[in-house]
Every structure is written in C-alpha cells, then in structure tokens.
Amino acid sequence: MAAKNILHMLTPHKHVSPFDVNMALDAGYDSVTPYEAVTMEEVADLVQDVIFSRPPDRGVNSAVFFGGDDAVLALDMIEAAKNALVPPFGCNIMADPAGSFTTAAAMVACVERTLKNEKGKALSDVTIAVFGATGVVGYCSAVIAALEGARVKVVGYNGIERVRQRADEMKERFGVEVEPVDGSSDDKNTAIVREVEVIFAAAKAGVQVLSLKQLQAAEKLLVAADVNAVPPLGLEGVDVMADGEPIEGTSAFGIGALAVGPIKSNTEQGLLKRMIEAEEPQFLDFRDAFQLARTLVS
Ligand SMILES: NC(=O)c1ccc[n+]([C@@H]2O[C@H](COP(=O)([O-])OP(=O)(O)OC[C@H]3O[C@@H](n4cnc5c(N)ncnc54)[C@H](OP(=O)(O)O)[C@@H]3O)[C@@H](O)[C@H]2O)c1
Questions:
Q1: For the chain, where do the domains classified as CATH 3.40.50.720 start and end?
Q2: CB 7 within 8 Å of CB 67
Q3: pLDDT category of residue 57 using cuts at 50, 70 and 90
Q4: What CATH architecture does domain 6-95 belong to?
Q5: What separation in Å is there between the alpha carbon of 252 and the centre of ligand 1?
Q6: Ligand 1 atom showing the smallest separation from residue 206 Cα
Q7: Is the predicted pLDDT of residue 298 greater than 90, yes or no?
Q8: Whole-prediction pTM value?
Q9: 132 within ligand 1 shell (Cβ under 6 A)
Q10: Backbone conformation region of residue 83, classed left if phi is above 0, alpha if psi is from -120 to 50, else beta
Q11: CATH number of 100-260
C-alpha cells in the first residue's frame, strides 16, 4: 500500500495559518495536523516522534512545516529539526512563516524578470532600498537580493538602530553586507530613493511608504515593487494589479501585490508538492523558494 503523505504543521503562535493548511491539502497531502504554541525546546522531541513512527524508507512521506511570523525563529527551528534527525530516520522540513519566505521570493523574482525584460539588467547590477526590512517579508527579500549580488539598503522608518541590528544579523547568519539607512522622515526617504534603481516596499499592510512625487524624484529608478494589497498601497502610483506597468512620470516599471500573489501561492504549493514527490527528504527555506519562483515568472 502506498504510504500516506503526512504533514505536521508547527507554529509558535496560538493558531497555524488556515492559508497554509489549505495550500498543503491542495498540494496533495493526505493529512495536515496543527501543533500550536510550539517552543524551540519542543522541536527536537516532536521531530523525533515523527521520524521514529515509520521505517526509514517512509521518512520521505513525512514532513514538518514551521509557520509563525519570525523569519529568524523559523530558520532556527529548521536547524533544530535537522539536528534532531537520526539517520537513516529522516523527514522533509520546510518553513514559510506568515507566507513570508514565498512572498519575498515571489517579489524578488518578479523584480528580477522585469529588470531583465525592460532594462536588460540583473539584480547584481542594481542598488535596492528595502522598506519594512524589520518585518519578515522585508528581511527575506533583503537577504535574497543581497545573496544575488545586489547592493541593498535596509530602511528604518523609525530610525537606524533596529535596521542596524537586522543588518548585523544578516551578516552573521548569511554572510551578506547590507547597509542600514535612516528613513524616519519623508525628506530622508526621498534622498534614499534618489540613490537606488530598485525599491521593495514590504511595510505593514495599509501603510503608504512613498508618494508618487517621491517615486518621480527617484531619477535612477528602474523597478519598484509593493506587496501591500490593503489601501492605501505602499507605493502611490503602483497599482495593486500592476505586473511590470510604467509608473507615471518616471521611466520605471511597477509591480503590485496582486501580481506577486499568484507567484507566491504557486511557489508555496510547488515546494509542498516537491516534498510529496521527493525521493529523498527535502530541507526548504526562502532560498529554495526563490529558485522555484524565478522559474515561475517567465
Ligand atoms: N502579496 C502577498 O502575497 C503577501 C503575502 C504576505 C504578506 N504580504 C504583505 O507584505 C507586507 C509585509 O508583511 P510582513 O508579514 O513582513 O509584515 P510585518 O512583519 O508586520 O512587517 C511590516 C514591516 O513594516 C514596518 N512598519 C510598521 N509601520 C510602518 C510605518 N508606519 N512605515 C513604514 N514601515 C512600517 C514594520 O516595522 P516594525 O518592525 O516596527 O513592526 C515591519 O518592518 C504587508 O503589507 C503584508 O500584507 C503580502
């Protein structure tokens, strides 16, 4: 009899995400079980309970998925889970806290495609300002872009200190150098965007981070992407549906949240399917999400 594909969905929060549950069942999992308020200390025991319940050759049919809303905690939980495996007993391990790994991957992939198609440039040719960089989506998109060779500025809307801490953490964990910058006033933000070719807007839902006037003052701007679908949008003048549309009064192109959304969903579902179809256990984080997303955007 074919082994059932079983997903154990762990979150440090009170609830797992219904979005992720639907995604997993639609991807083909036979069963999805939520575990809530999970702490770091509990991860190893839970993972060992998963792997020892099936013979080693069925480990590939079990998976552990980490949710939550903290990119660093989710990455730490992936590491704790990997360290708890006892070969030949294993299982698949994936994280996508608050959908952020796949959202960041999709946004960066959409920007990469538009940069190439419209401007003949690569991520490694540009400087990027990331707004919302202390959040999960902003954090991951900054790291993905920096790993691809982009020069990245992480913008602190309430001063430089918290983005400096994030930049230090990115350097320690991923070996990437990103520049913390102070975006605590409209004038400072205007000065920041004058110096960049790309903008990632990943701030809190319903917060406008830049006006159309500020985008029009950004003379070097090539592409600007926004993942906030809740009015007011993050970038005035970039429609929620824009998928590489010109931004009025600029020579730049805009990407809106509902253009990123389908790539995000297909990326998350694609990674879940990869775990179901794999012959060896998979360990998947936002770097795998980006590699998949960039194949989905063309
Ligand atoms: N399109 C999609 O498929 C999709 C999927 C998931 C999420 N999203 C969207 O992506 C965005 C980011 O999500 P997230 O989960 O990363 O959110 P998050 O963790 O809440 O982070 C939001 C970021 O915005 C910052 N922020 C808060 N108030 C701000 C203000 N007044 N001005 C500028 N920045 C401000 C936050 O700073 P603090 O550190 O001070 O809180 C944080 O850096 C949201 O708009 C969300 O709706 C889109």
A1: 100-260
A2: no
A3: very high
A4: 3-Layer(aba) Sandwich (3.40)
A5: 23
A6: 45
A7: no
A8: 0.97
A9: yes
A10: alpha
A11: 3.40.50.720
